[in-house]
Amino acid sequence: MASLRPPSSDSRGTPRSRAGAGPAAEAPARVTNADRARVGAIHPTRDMIARVRALAEPLAEARGCTIAAIEAVGSVTGRRVLRISIDKVGGAGVEDCTRVSRALSPALDVEDLIDSAYDLEVSTPGMDRPIQRAEDYVRFTGCEVRIKTWGMDGRRRLKARILGCQDGAVQLATDGGPRDLPLEEIERANLVLTFEQFNRLGQGLHPVAEEEGDPS
Does position 32 have pLDDT exceeding 60, yes or no? Predict the structure, then answer.
């Protein structure tokens, strides 16, 4: 079975007018008004991503793929980028990205889920795979992860090992000991995989082998 390669494949849609091994922590910082504004924007963005996921998942599954992550990010042009990462056993490629993009683009136009100009980008997740949902953290228990929080506790970045996820919080092993981090405080999280772990994931296996302490 073919294994995934680190560089991401992608299919970039046309511009749309609307719908178209210890923690690396920064020094504690004071909570600013900008921090508070960003935190206040969490729920509308998450709601939009949830609606896009509900639309995208059946379209991707009908084409033999799964949705790995959905992100709404800025760009150098000032337009929002709707970035959708897809995957499948053996690794998704350019053709998969193109098929999903062609199916999703008109569906987004019809549903009009995004309230500003954006560009659609469909790609594969790569070695720094984003993880977003509680089930993602459960699936990748035992893996290393880099997390960026919304900054309300003064510590915005950390690296840890995932121990599990329950009751709306991720259980982490850090150099300072176990820590529970509420999902709502996480702005972004990415797996930290070795090349061997990345290939295992591409083969449909848990990234962490048994000799490394595979939780499964």
Answer: no
Q: How far apart are CA 191 and CA 208, in angstroms?
A: 12
Q: What is the distance between the alpha carbons of residues 137 and 199, in angstroms, rounded to a whole number?
A: 19
Write down the residue that tokens 């995932």 correspond to: 162
Q: Which domains does the chain have, with CATH numbers?
A: 10-19+33-123 (3.30.70), 134-206 (2.30.30.180)
SS in 3 state form for 104-153?
A: HHHHHHHHCCCCCCEEEEEECCCCCCECCCHHHHHHCCCCEEEEEECCCC
pLDDT tens, 93-109? Answer: 999 999 999 999 999 99
pLDDT per residue as tens digits for the range 161-176: 999 999 999 999 998 8
CA distance 203 to 197: 10
Instruction: Please give the Cα distance from 168 to 84 (Å, whole number).
Output: 24
Q: Which amino acid is at 9?
A: S
Q: Which amino acid is at 123?
A: S
* Tokens 């953290």 found at: 137
CA distance 159 to 42: 22
